[in-house]
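Question (not urgent): is this output format expected?
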Amino acid sequence: MDDINDFLEHYQPKLLYYLEANPERSPNEPGPLEFVENVLDGWSDFAKGRQLREPSLRERTFWFALYQLEELVETPVTGKLDPYEEILMQNLAKVRNLLKEWHELPEGFHATRPGEDPCAL
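Got this back:
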């Protein structure tokens, strides 16, 4: 197992926890947006000065799930789901199940690592 997998596996259980929208969060735990920021800061520190292999398709599942969580928690709550929020929720449900088993993203889904140029793919 490589360092990248170790990094992802360290954060995967907590990411799944937030994707489950667990209301029983301890008051000492970070909120979902703070968690996302912690992962992104951790990745920035981890990746600094390293030669990184190409991200695996399973790794892209992790980043997709993290970005979807970030998007959802940054979306203003209006009291009812608008069509965009419904799409986010459907995507989250699908990717949460994929992330549990480290499956690849399906056709039509894509994510890059933080700081990676998506146009370079």
